Amino acid sequence: MKEEVTVGEAHMAGGRAVVPIVRSVLCSWEGGAYLAAEPVAIVVAGPDGALLVGHAGEDVAGDRVREAVERAYAALHAGTE
Question: Which of 30, 35, 48, 68 is 20 to 30 Å apart from 18, CA to CA?
Answer without folding.
Answer: 35
